Amino acid sequence: MPSVSRKLIVPDMVRVHRYQSSPELGPALLFFSGGSALNKISRCLKRYTHHSIHMVTPFDSGGSSAKLRLAFNMPAVGDLRSRIMALADETVLGQPDVYQLFSYRLSHEVSSASLLQELESLVDGEHPLMANIVAPMKVLIQTQLSRLQKKLPDGFDLRGASVGNLIIAGGYLNNQELLDPIVFLFSRLVETLGQVTTIIDEGYHLGVTLANGKQVIGQHLITGKEVEPLDSPIRNIWLNDGVSTYTPVSPTLPKDRADQIAEAALICYPPGSFFTSIVANLLVEGVSGAIVKNLNPKIYLPNLGDDPEQQGWGVMDRVRYLISMLLGDEPESNAQSRVLDWLLLDDTYDYGDLDEGLLESWGVQVVKTPLVTSKPDRYDEQLVVHALLSFV
């Protein structure tokens, strides 16, 4: 049976206004995501609920996170930081200063010596961005940065480093190489209106097998954003221990994450890179079982526009893959063990071939509603939030 038994109205503005009037009592909408695609939607969502849950992939191997991963053999923290900042309460007195510090990046244009001096000024609390941050926040930030500074290997490249990433990395090193304690602290510092966590804390990497048989290991080589796009469609994806050799791993989902998934008011597979942001979270052993246990609505909101890693994958292909990888069976099995209930689409956008009859045989219903306004390849975040809230 479908997870929503009442008459579904999308958007249901009665429900939307109810949540907007009391966001502190809002529902626990859970998102499997990574990257920045969901950040604007998250900034809008915090006006309606303070209980959203964001399970972010820690497998990125590009950008400034890559330097920290290489230096300390740690999970990627860039996507984690950016989602925390998207959910930060920017209305609290003093928060803009903390927000600005955590969002600040060191220059690409100055010498290594100058960057080390700037880091020293942050550690000492003398940096202009630290001036208006008061204790205990300032002391806590200095403590994490001091730990990082002492552990930095000789020659570490600080160009373009996110100070927020450096603070989290320092906290990771300062807390027995565990992410959860520093994520909790970081979230408290910026008064996050929601919960952000990695799907697991281990520092694994992503690998894909292409249609031409080639294997590619390392997210930065897969997304088509830092290097040339893949020359063949992806056929399979896995978690790998390291980036040098094929060493597949099957880590287990921690119990607290399993409980959150099983108890969420709604589960969303949101816009974002299909393989490296969405599916990557689902590779962890135990995720599918927790999703099946949850009897509440499960929604897939596909990407708009062209995603380099998604070449050759239409919406129907992605729905089939999503169901089959979670259930280990043909998509028809979703009708009994549900991992997906609804395909949420804009009512005018061309998503390509769509077989609603076949989707229905898989146990997936299509809901079409206005989700795109002025920019044809980008969702309107408020319309998306209104639509999602209408299901709960």
UniProtKB/TrEMBL annotation:
* Stored PANTHER family: MATERNAL EFFECT EMBRYO ARREST 18
What name has this protein been given in UniProt?
GAK system CofD-like protein
